[in-house]
Design a protein that fits this description.
The protein is an alpha/beta fold. The protein has 2 domains: 28-148 and 239-281, Bacterial extracellular solute-binding protein, family 7 (D-Maltodextrin-Binding Protein, domain 2), CATH 3.40.190.170; 152-237 and 291-329, 3-Layer(aba) Sandwich (D-Maltodextrin-Binding Protein, domain 2), CATH 3.40.190.170. The chain is 40% helix and 24% strand. It has helices at 43-58, 76-84, 117-124, 127-138, 178-186, 199-205, 215-220, 246-250, 254-288, 300-305, 307-316, 321-329, and strands spanning 4-14, 20-35, 63-68, 90-94, 141-147, 152-156, 171-174, 190-193, 210-213, 229-236, 240-245, 292-294. The strands form 3 sheets. Strands 1, 2, 3, 4, 5 and 11 form a 6-stranded mixed sheet that branches. Strands 9-6-10-12 form a 4-stranded mixed sheet. Strand 2 (20-35), helix 1 (43-58) and strand 3 form a beta-alpha-beta unit. Helix 1 runs antiparallel to helix 9. The protein is globular. Bound molecules: beta-D-galactopyranuronic acid. Beta-D-galactopyranuronic acid binds next to loops. Keywords: Signal. It comes from Litchfieldella qijiaojingensis.
Length: 331
């Protein structure tokens, strides 16, 4: 369902007499509703708001996107469904909760699939990234550009994690995807899939012992206030999309599609730049608040534990093995 707005646009029409007259005619504008899980000031939020403003300006109000922050339009799995069926027009989605719907994207959720963020950018900006965009399009989501989401690390309320043994018995919140349940269980922990918005209270009340995320989310969600140990496992590097609902996309003229695509790419460039400083600032804020951050000298102990996760995934999705190989081979 689209919410339309009537705007007055001044147009020139040629009257019957042949003379040019200026009239004000109502023209339909699309008020695009955009889902964003993050608060104001977060790198993704700034980039999305800039996208919205530029699209509105360049289409002269024909497309008028508005960003709804803090996940007020629903949890991420709900918002994915709403964007797929056109109730929402655009969103910034992490590829983690996308896995249950677009199975190809699960490849991006395999632990340690990327060597570093640069590797992820190289893959997503190239031919392999286009394959993910094609898979998303089949499920009614048009991925116009890729945002950064850094590397996710484990944090918890009781001790620093240096080896997989330190995860044993911990109740760890994960995003909504069975792959992450397997990942935490392979480390000996108990995984609890849960919406992002419930994590703070669950950490505070001891429903869970820990979770995992990048620095900006660990800080902006205030999880650092109730979880003192942040351990640099960097086990997941997951890209995010700026996605538009297929129905909203197809309602645009080719010219407006071009504008929206260009602005989405500019927004991702802006987001990636903001991400670098934002991560540094968030790290400093949590350090100043007394969080203990530890590096992990040897991550291979964690990587080794992920072998059964890969084996099970490939056994269940043999057709995706070549995609894994292509990603691994590209760095
Ligand atoms: C953030 C990500 C969000 C959401 C969140 C979570 O890093 O940007 O889209 O997936 O993590 O843990 O649920």
């Amino acid at each position: 369902m689209q919410i339309k707005k009537l705007v007055n646009q001044t147009v020139c029409v040629t009257a019957v007499s042949g003379a040019m007259v200026v009239m004000s005619l109502p023209v339909q504008a699309d008020n695009w509703r955009g889902w964003n899980i993050h608060p104001p000031g977060y790198p993704n939020t700034i980039a999305l708001e800039s996208f919205a403003e530029s699209v509105s300006e360049r289409t002269e109000g024909r497309v008028h996107p508005q960003v709804y922050n803090n996940g007020v339009l629903g949890s991420q799995p709900d918002a994915i469904e709403q964007t797929r069926n056109g109730a929402l027009d655009f969103a910034n989605f992490n590829m983690g909760p996308m896995g249950p719907i677009v199975k190809e994207t699960n490849v991006l959720s395999l632990p340690f699939i990327f060597n570093n963020v640069e590797h992820m950018h190289e893959v997503m900006d190239g031919e392999v990234g286009q394959r993910f965009a094609d898979a998303l399009a089949e499920k009614n989501l048009i991925a116009l550009s890729w945002f950064d989401s850094g590397a996710r690390s484990l944090y918890n309320t009781s001790h620093p994690i240096n080896s997989p043994e330190d995860v044993e018995g911990l109740k760890v919140r994960v995003m909504n995807n069975d792959l992450y349940v397997n990942m935490i269980e392979a480390l000996g922990g108990n995984a609890t899939p849960m919406a992002y918005g419930e994590v703070y209270q669950s950490l505070k009340t001891g429903v869970i012992d820990g979770a995992e995320n990048n620095y900006p989310s660990f800080q902006s969600s205030n999880h650092y206030e109730v979880s003192q140990y942040y351990s640099l496992t960097e086990h997941l590097i997951i890209p995010e999309c700026l996605c538009v609902a297929k129905s909203s996309w197809e309602a645009l003229s080719p010219e407006d599609q071009e504008i929206v695509r260009e602005e989405a790419i500019k927004a991702s460039e802006m987001q990636r730049q903001l991400w670098v400083d934002g991560s540094r600032e968030s790290r400093q804020i949590v350090l100043d608040a007394g969080v203990e951050i530890n590096e992990i000298a040897d991550k291979s102990t964690f990587q080794d534990k992920m072998q059964p996760v890969y084996a099970e995934f490939i056994a269940e999705n043999p057709e995706l093995e070549s995609l894994i190989d292509d990603i691994k081979a590209s760095n």
